[in-house]
Every structure is written in C-alpha cells, then in structure tokens.
Amino acid sequence: MTEFSLDRSNIPGVVLAGGRSSRMGRDKAAVLLGGRSLLDHAIARLAPQVLALAVNADAPGKDGIPLVPDRVPGKAGPMAGIHAAMAHAARFPGVSHVVTVSIDSPFFPADLVVRLAAAVDGPGRIATAASKGRGHPVFGLWPVALADDLETWIATDEKRRVRDFLLRHDATEVVFPLHPMRASALDPFFNINTPDDLVEAEHWLEALGG
After folding, report:
1. How far is CA 107 from CA 4, 44, 171, 190, 210, in A?
2. Is the dihedral of CA 32, 61, 25, 22 positive or negative?
3. Nearest CA to 172 among 131, 127, 115, 138?
4. E strands present in the chain
5. Which residues pair with 143 in a beta bridge?
6. Does 159 score more than 90 pLDDT?
7. What are 120-138's pLDDT values in tens digits?
8. In angstroms, how far is CA 200 from the centroid of its own chain?
9. CA distance 84 to 43
10. Is CB count within 10 Å lower at the N or C end of the chain?
11. What angle do CA 110, 50, 179 make, to 5 degrees?
C-alpha cells in the first residue's frame, strides 16, 4: 500500500458565509469589526493558508473571489456549505481535501490549515478543530471524494448535525490552544452570533492591536 501524503500546498479553502444570521439580525458577511467586514477578516486570515479561496454564500461577495452557492436547495445548514466546498474543490487538479472556515470567527488560527493537514493520514481522513473542550467542526479539512456521500446524507438525515456526519467517517479532532492575552486568554474560535458578541469581539481586536 502506498503511504498517503497530503500536499499542504494544494489545499483550496472556502469561507462559509451562507447562514441565516437570525440572532445577529443581518448578514454576518457585511457586519463590521474594527471597520472591516467579517468577510474581509476571514479572507485575510485564510488566503495565505490556501491554494485558492472561494466564498459559500447566496449573494455576491468579494470581487475576484469565486462565489460557491449551496448545491443542495432549502438552506440545509452548514453541511450544505461544506458539500458545496467539496464539489468546488474537486475541480482543482490533484486536490484531495478542502478546508472550510466560518464567517463569524474572525480570530481563527493563522496555522489552522497546517495543523489540520498534519492530522490527515489518509485520503478519507477528516480533520476538524477544537478548543477549550469544545469542537468546532465547521473549521475542518474535508476529503473532496466524500461529496456524493454527503449529498445523500443531507437528503436523508433529518437533523443534519455536523458531528453525526463525522461519526460515519474517519475523523480526527485537532485541539488548538487559547491565545494568551494580558488579562485573560482568547479562544481563537470565538464566534460572533449576536450584537453583544460583536461588542466583545471589538474589545478582543483592540487587545490584539488590530
């Protein structure tokens, strides 16, 4: 058997920005943090880590960056965005995996892709992020070959929970440390779901010097 080696320079990335944003009350991609949109924060953080970048959303995103809408109709949740990412990445020659990140976590690690890739020991292995005792499965490295299986699962599974899909496959969780700050520590996967979260994120951004 040939030993599998993931080419870390050949991993495309997709920002998941197609959520309903019901608790925020407006499209998260356009929400401003430190004078920049959450979409801009996600792009700036992910772009240096990947071969190519796209955005999973229904509406136009950023000039020059491909838009990858859900292929599964009916707002089927984050797994529909991950499916769209898999299908999009399969177009790139020699690509085995695609990384996904969420629009609402602007502080995700700058070494996210490297660390997830280090945990992938086979073409079917999924690697997802965790921190502070909690999993963050939408921050994951996904085999593009699972696109058909995922599409079928979305159509037949009523709950469509990311963790339930992970249980069907070889999946590894990679634990990321908290970011030390002067008075406390920042969870790199801190996510902005409400206006109050946005206020807290502004304080974190200021503390980080951003």
Report:
1. 31, 11, 24, 7, 11
2. negative
3. 127
4. 13-16, 32-33, 36-37, 53-56, 97-102, 126-131, 134-143, 171-175, 179-180, 185-186
5. 97
6. no
7. 999 999 999 999 999 999 9
8. 21
9. 18
10. N
11. 10
